[in-house]
Specification:
This protein is mostly helical. The chain has one domain. The chain is built from 2 helices and no strands.
């Protein structure tokens, strides 16, 4: 993902050749410093890959939780409608029973 924005790889740093002047830097110091940079780059790449994997897993979990939330919300709405229907049915039964009592109709 970030590889297109990072110019140097650990291998690029390792194989870099510098021109040597008579008054140049000490090669051992440069090599030692470049070794530290290479290790850092490897760590950065490893950290980025782990974070990308974690991000992917979190996005998948987020999507799963959103879907589960939507399903639960739908179930709640269905349950509310069912309660109203049962309540209306109960009212109709009570009215029917009252009519039977008031008007004296027996079945």
């Amino acid at each position: 993902m970030y590889h297109d924005r990072i110019v140097l790889t650990p291998q690029d740093i390792l194989t870099k050749e510098f021109k040597v002047d008579t008054r140049g830097y000490r090669l051992k110091e440069v090599d030692k410093f470049l070794d530290i940079i290479i290790r850092d780059y490897e760590q950065f790449i490893d950290i980025i890959e782990k974070l990308e994997l974690e991000k992917k897993e979190l996005l998948e979990e987020n999507l799963r939780l959103k879907t589960e939330f939507r399903n639960i919300k739908t179930d709640i709405e269905i349950a509310k409608q069912t309660e109203k229907e049962v309540t209306n049915l109960d009212i109709l039964r009570r009215l029917s029973n009252l009519e039977k009592i008031v008007f004296g109709k027996d079945e």
